[in-house]
Amino acid sequence: MSFEEEWAGLKAVAAARMRLNGAPTRDPDASPTGADLIVHDDELGKIGHFAYRLHNNLKADGKQAQTTTKAAGTSLTSDGFEMGKALTSASTAWAEQVGTLVDACAHISNHLDHTKASKKKDDEWVGAQVGVSKISGYYDVPDESAKPSVPRPQGPIM
């Protein structure tokens, strides 16, 4: 392939990407500013709540068969069956994977709680800043370097 052919192919790909980036969105909830991720507090709350419930359910139910499975594996191994070792190994792997999933659910739930709290703090800070800037526009603040002027009396002083 010659340089010209390769260059023409690259330009065609770049032109296609530009057309795709400029394509109008069909999403009715799309941001007017062009932001591609909009999340509302109630959506975060639902996701966090589901992650919390999944965490609690997995923590309780995920280890339900672990004791009996390990006991069966140990019993089969002592009876000379190779399947016992495999069952014990599967039980150990299952426990590790359930633990990883429980930790992931806790991480999601905690992260969403932190995100909501952080967003609320940011919104309050911005609201306070906007409020201060509006208030400061209603009164005239003198320049610190300017000296106050005292009016001189006019007319005779008695």
Give me the secondary-structure category. Answer: mainly alpha
Low-confidence stretches: none
Number of distinct beta strands: 0
Gyration radius from CA atoms, angstroms: 34 Å
Say what oligomer this is: single chain
Report strand %: under 5%
Q: What is the average of the pLDDT values?
A: 76
Order of helices and strands: HHHH
Q: Helix fraction?
A: 55-70%
Sheet of most strands: none
Polypeptide structure, described:
The protein is mainly alpha-helical. The protein has a domain at 38-130. It has helices at 3-21, 41-61, 66-78, 82-136. It starts with a helix and ends in a 22-residue tail after the last helix.
Q: What's a concise summary of this model?
A:
The protein is mainly alpha-helical. Helix content is 68%, strand content 0%.
Task: Quickly list its features.
0% strand; 158 residues; mainly alpha; elongated; single chain
What's the arrangement of secondary structure elements?
Elements: H1 3-21, H2 41-61, H3 66-78, H4 82-136
Helix pairs in contact: 2-4, 3-4
